[in-house]
Amino acid sequence: MTIPSIPFKSKQLEALIEIVDLEELSHRKKSLDHNPEKPHKVGFNLLIHVEQGEGAHFLDFNHSHFESGSFIFIRKNQIHAFDLSQNPKGKMILFKDRFIQHIQTNMKIPVLWPLFLSHDYSPIFNPSPSLQQSCQNLIQEIRRETEQGHSNSLIVMHLFSSLFLLMERESKATGKKLLSQQRNEKLEAFMSLVESNYTKTRNASDYAVQLNITYKTLNQLCKNTLGKTAKQLIDSFIILESKRRLILEDKSIQILADELGFDEVTNFVKYFKKHTLMTPSDFKKS
């Protein structure tokens, strides 16, 4: 299977965020260079608000049901596919990592990326009717501000952050409280280190040392925020990355095991089977 990689493309040259109508995707799918209803990898973050319709969104080898009012969170580099069979209507907010970085640099409030944009989270959020209306209003204001000739980036960042803060407050799925800025930065640093070093170490204690905190502190931070231990989050990331590479790259299991940091291919096969109940070869065929 060949899975295309889709970059961020905006009508505005320096844009870091853009809002597109979901129904426009349905109308344009025949003219696109990829089929949005087939698995593809995105080079940006994506927040979809379904105003009307239902279906099952494919995200990293799982299908998640959505309905009218649902929000779907898709992180950069995730593999996903739209379900346009019922012609859903709504809005898609496309934004780069740099947009998030600007928010963290310019605004003195904790933000929610570990909860909604981490590698371990529920991709679907269904707000109450009253919150749904507030969210629609905020999205409309973001769009109005980004599309006018002299848009104010601080206004856009405040509106966007308000959108996420409102959803976080109502969210019952995670049962997590908003992190302090310091804890938020530690969790982000941990996740970034895992992405950069997972081929070198799968030991949570090694990451705690690099973060200059104790293993117990790191473990507690992960459990309080995402409901899993640091080791479980590391394993979840490695398995997900293994699945992506098994599908995306035409390499032997032995070469892939070596690139993923396993000394022996048998160790990789055992590790993969332990977490997925199938071998890498069986997964690739499925």
Explain what you see.
- With 286 residues, the chain is an alpha+beta fold.
- The protein folds into two domains: 5-170, Jelly Rolls; 181-285, Homeodomain-like (Arc Repressor Mutant, subunit A, Orthogonal Bundle), CATH 1.10.10.
- The chain contains twelve helices and ten strands.
- The protein has helices at 22-28, 97-106, 113-116, 129-147, 153-170, 181-197, 204-211, 215-226, 230-248, 253-259, 265-276, 280-285, and strands at residues 5-6, 17-21, 40-42, 45-52, 55-59, 62-66, 71-74, 79-81, 89-95, 124-125.
- The strands form two sheets. A five-stranded mixed sheet has the order 1-3-8-5-6, with no helix packed on it. A five-stranded antiparallel sheet has the order 2-9-4-7-10.
- Strand 5 (55-59) and strand 6 (62-66) form a beta hairpin.
- Helix 2 packs across helix 5 and helix 10 (253-259) crosses helix 11.
- The longest helix is centred in the middle third of the chain and has 19 residues, at 129-147.
- It is globular and about 55 Å long.
Helix-strand layout with pairing:
Layout: E1 5-6, E2 17-21, H1 22-28, E3 40-42, E4 45-52, E5 55-59, E6 62-66, E7 71-74, E8 79-81, E9 89-95, H2 97-106, H3 113-116, E10 124-125, H4 129-147, H5 153-170, H6 181-197, H7 204-211, H8 215-226, H9 230-248, H10 253-259, H11 265-276, H12 280-285
Parallel strand pairs: 1-3
Antiparallel strand pairs: 2-9, 3-8, 4-7, 4-9, 5-6, 5-8, 7-10
Helix pairs in contact: 2-5, 4-5, 6-7, 7-8, 10-11
Write a brief structural summary.
The protein is α+β, with helices and mostly antiparallel strands.
